[in-house]
């Protein structure tokens, strides 16, 4: 499409763009905020906001449905760029589904009606969260955003932002997601407004329960510092809904922006790309109401746990199982790994023999079919999900996704050979140099500690178990021979012959 026909995405251009790609069928001027979402990234826009948009498209004249619009909130200073883009585009963005055959399926999403940047608009954020019309506050603040001590499972208050928010003085505004949630609840209580429901959409087992425990602990510490009694009211009045969310959503690239412009004539500063598959299992726990999500394919269920464990221990843990050895072997994208029969056999072996035995029955799901479908999803060449993205923030991921599989398998007397190889691959990756001698950019909130432990397993006088001597990540696995045996064998093989030959040796063992 020629440059002359390029149309910038904005509310005033929506009608013209509708001739090129699907746009909202509802009148966005009638949409009102009922959900405030903290942590607007690609995943939220490809998932929860998409479902709300689909519901509004299905009932464009229903005022109740149109009362569930989303206001996004960026809590971090780095969210300023997202705020700039979302404001310029009136909250609109293009969701581009990438099919394996190269077919692109774009749609303009209109369910986000406003975006606030909390560092600059903190009072507006609190006013909106405290407003009676806001009945749900949802979260995608990453696994690390819940401040869980990985050893004790308790709330970890050491973060500087948390410390600031615990001791807010008169006229001061919070800086963290927890700070905004609790301060908004305090204002609702004072005004006699019923509490909103907190809905976590992060990849954490029992994410609603974790949010409940951690936000409750934050509120109790805040009470101690400020001489208030809010925590008991939160315990009585606030419901924390569990959910399982699933859709592969890679980072948007300049190539994605260019493809949208060249093929569809839409200029979008921050479109979102995703795979065709999407799933959301949501606990039906919303005392003040919720959108009728079941009408657009959401599985609204009484118990999310079986779906959560299936996703965390098969999909998420398998992402870890493919990214480190795949990167070391020279691959750079998930689809490259999943077009490699050696890696596919390894992934299926992990899922069938180590991940699946830790699961109970998942209602309505054939686990054998689900495992095969995961490989097909990972192999989608159009998604171009980078291994670097999957390897990032491992300190928040491995303890939640893979370590529980290891501990349960050990307790049952089962094999953990493949999981041990995954952990050893992370240890080798964290050394910061790949098998081709190229530097690895290790992205992790505990980067310095992780890389120091990885360095300690090298050279003269090396401690081969140094990487495991981190109870915050691995508990007591370093003292468990049934794990350290296969772990050491894997680590030595990775150093001596590399990732591909190591996987070949593991495959030969069966």
UniProtKB/TrEMBL annotation:
EC number: 1.1.1.17
Entry-linked PROSITE patterns: MANNITOL_DHGENASE (PS00974)
The Mannitol dehydrogenase N-terminal domain, residue ranges: 34-294
Pfam families given in the database record: Mannitol_dh (PF01232), Mannitol_dh_C (PF08125)
Protein name per Swiss-Prot or TrEMBL: Mannitol-1-phosphate 5-dehydrogenase
Ranges for domain Mannitol dehydrogenase C-terminal: 303-490
Keyword Oxidoreductase appears in the UniProt entry: yes
Record flagged with keyword Zinc: no
Catalytic reaction equation(s): D-mannitol 1-phosphate + NAD(+) = beta-D-fructose 6-phosphate + NADH + H(+)
GO biological processes: mannitol metabolic process
Entry-linked InterPro entries: 6-PGluconate_DH-like_C_sf (IPR008927), 6PGD_dom2 (IPR013328), Mannitol_DH (IPR000669), Mannitol_DH/Oxidoreductase (IPR050988), Mannitol_DH_C (IPR013118), Mannitol_DH_CS (IPR023027), Mannitol_DH_N (IPR013131), NAD(P)-bd_dom_sf (IPR036291)
Source organism of the structure: Nocardioides acrostichi
Family: Belongs to the mannitol dehydrogenase family.
Spans through the membrane: none
Keywords: NAD, Oxidoreductase
Gene Ontology molecular function: mannitol-1-phosphate 5-dehydrogenase activity
């Amino acid at each position: 499409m020629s440059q002359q026909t390029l149309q910038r995405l904005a509310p005033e251009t929506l009608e013209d763009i509708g001739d090129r790609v699907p746009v909202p069928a509802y009148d966005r001027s009638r949409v009102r905020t009922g959900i405030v979402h903290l942590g607007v990234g690609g995943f939220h826009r490809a998932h929860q906001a998409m479902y709300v948009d689909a519901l509004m498209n299905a009932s464009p004249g229903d005022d109740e449905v149109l009362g569930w619009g989303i206001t996004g909130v960026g809590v971090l200073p780095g969210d300023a760029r997202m705020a700039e883009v979302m404001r310029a585009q009136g909250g609109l963005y293009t969701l581009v589904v990438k099919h394996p055959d190269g077919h692109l399926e774009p749609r303009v999403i209109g369910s986000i009606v406003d975006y606030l940047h909390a560092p600059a608009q903190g009072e507006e954020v609190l006013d909106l969260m405290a407003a009676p019309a806001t009945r749900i506050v949802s979260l995608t603040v990453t696994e690390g955003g819940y401040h869980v001590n990985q050893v004790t499972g308790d709330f970890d208050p050491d973060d500087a932002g948390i410390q600031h928010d615990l001791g807010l003085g008169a006229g001061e505004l919070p800086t963290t997601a927890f700070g905004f949630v609790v301060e908004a609840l305090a204002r609702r209580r004072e005004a006699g407004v019923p509490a909103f429901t907190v809905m976590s959409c992060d990849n954490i087992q029992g994410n609603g329960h974790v949010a409940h425990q951690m936000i409750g602990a934050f509120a109790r510490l805040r009470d101690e510092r400020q001489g208030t009694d809010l925590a008991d009211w939160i315990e009585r009045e606030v419901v924390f809904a569990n959910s399982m969310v699933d859709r592969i959503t890679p980072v948007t690239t300049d190539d994605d922006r260019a493809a949208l412009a060249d093929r569809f004539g839409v200029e979008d500063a921050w479109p979102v790309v995703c795979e065709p598959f999407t799933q959301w299992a949501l606990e039906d726990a919303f005392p003040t109401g919720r959108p009728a999500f079941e009408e657009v394919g959401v599985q609204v269920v009484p118990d999310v746990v079986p779906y959560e464990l299936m996703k965390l221990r098969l999909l998420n843990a398998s992402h870890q199982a493919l990214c480190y050895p795949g990167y070391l072997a020279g691959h750079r994208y998930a689809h490259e790994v999943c077009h490699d029969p050696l890696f596919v056999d390894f992934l299926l072996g992990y899922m069938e023999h180590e991940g699946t035995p830790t699961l109970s029955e998942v209602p309505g799901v054939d686990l054998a079919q689900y495992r095969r479908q995961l490989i097909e999803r990972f192999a989608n060449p159009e998604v171009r999900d980078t291994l670097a993205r999957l390897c990032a923030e491992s300190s928040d991921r491995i303890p939640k996704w893979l370590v529980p599989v290891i501990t349960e398998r050990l307790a049952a007397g089962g094999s953990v050979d493949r999981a041990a190889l995954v952990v050893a691959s992370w240890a080798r990756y964290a050394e910061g140099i790949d098998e081709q001698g190229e530097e690895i950019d290790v992205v992790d909130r505990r980067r310095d500690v992780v890389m120091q432990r990885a360095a300690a397993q090298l050279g003269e006088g090396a401690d081969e178990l140094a990487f495991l001597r981190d109870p915050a990540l691995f508990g007591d696995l370093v003292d468990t021979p049934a794990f350290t045996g296969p772990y050491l064998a894997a680590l030595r093989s990775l150093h001596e012959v590399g990732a591909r030959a190591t996987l070949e040796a593991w495959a030969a063992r069966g």
